[in-house]
Recover the amino acids of this structure.
């Protein structure tokens, strides 16, 4: 995958199955873009502002809140909650701020906005698009918590057609969806692990996103195991494994072979750009820093300021 593609977009959505490394990759992409001179806003979708931030583990720095905080030069982080999106939406559409405040104090309305299918995502989308309008950031990198989320955002047009057809909510949603589906503005990257099943699921997810007109740049295969064996060593270990010996290298060897097979599958079936990130022994901010170096090395020099 060419990172240059990400540099030209205003919104990069990082998606994929649970635990594949979305948050880590989000942090790494943010660092790589920041190093290329972009002012980056990392957005973390959370159900409530009390939800502990994953991004802060991956990026370090102060804990984010519902307003952006600076964690590194060129990198700010913000939590996107449905409630804040609803509040901002009401403030922007109702003629008086007191009305919006009163509306947000209404427990019934709050419960409705959270519970009605699609309205949570609309809140998140409203907030995201609101940040995009501000000239403070060149790129927003969105860490979506689970596979369903990016799809849910992409499915808002259908939800709209079913539920509401006109009025300010529909207008806002259409604007948001127009932003999400414009390939000049938005791109999604699908993160996966180098195993057959996750790869198959990642391809399905990419297809699903594209079906809903959300542009997909490519697939990031994360945690690709390093191959520590020379050709001779591999042959030796393979022989031992074939004889049923439980050698330490045996498990590693089969993992490496599974990974190679999964990558092969992606190349054959994917039809998309691939980028491999290796499995590293480090964690937290140090990990995202190292992975960012690898992403940056894929940048053409002309893309760097
Ligand atoms: N390239 C890598 N090398 C080693 N460890 C990694 C790598 N990428 C991610 N990890 C580790 O894998 C774990 C899961 O990563 P992460 O939290 O980024 O996944 P996620 O997809 O955001 O998970 P969730 O779906 O729960 O939000 C973390 O402990 C992280 O440190
Ligand atoms: Mg995560």
């Amino acid at each position: 995958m060419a990172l240059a593609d990400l540099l030209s977009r205003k919104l990069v959505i990082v998606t994929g199955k649970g635990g594949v490394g979305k948050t880590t990759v989000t942090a790494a992409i943010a660092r790589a873009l920041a190093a290329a001179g972009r002012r980056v806003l990392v957005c973390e979708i959370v159900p409530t502002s009390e939800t502990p931030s994953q991004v802060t583990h991956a990026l370090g720095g102060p804990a984010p809140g519902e307003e952006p905080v600076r964690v590194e030069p060129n990198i700010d982080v913000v939590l996107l909650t449905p409630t804040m999106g609803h509040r901002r939406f009401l403030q922007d559409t109702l003629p008086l701020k007191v009305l919006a405040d009163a509306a947000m104090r209404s427990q019934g309305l709050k419960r409705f906005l959270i519970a009605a299918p699609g309205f949570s995502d609309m809140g998140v989308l409203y907030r995201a698009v609101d940040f995009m309008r501000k000239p403070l950031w060149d790129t927003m990198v969105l860490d979506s918590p689970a596979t369903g989320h990016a799809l849910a955002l992409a499915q808002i047009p259908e939800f709209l057609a079913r539920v509401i057809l006109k009025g300010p909510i529909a207008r806002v949603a259409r604007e948001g969806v127009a932003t999400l589906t414009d390939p000049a503005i938005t791109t999604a990257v699908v993160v996966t692990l180098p195993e057959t099943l996750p790869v198959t699921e990642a391809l399905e997810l990419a297809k699903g996103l594209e079906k809903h007109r959300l542009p997909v740049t490519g697939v990031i295969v994360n945690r690709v195991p390093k191959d520590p064996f020379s050709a001779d060593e591999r042959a030796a270990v393979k022989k031992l494994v074939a004889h049923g010996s439980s050698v330490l290298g045996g498990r590693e060897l089969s993992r490496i072979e599974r990974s190679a097979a999964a990558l092969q599958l992606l190349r054959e079936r994917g039809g998309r750009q691939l980028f491999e990130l290796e499995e590293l022994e480090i964690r937290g901010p140090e990990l995202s820093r190292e992975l960012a170096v690898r992403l940056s090395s894929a940048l053409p020099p002309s893309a760097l300021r």
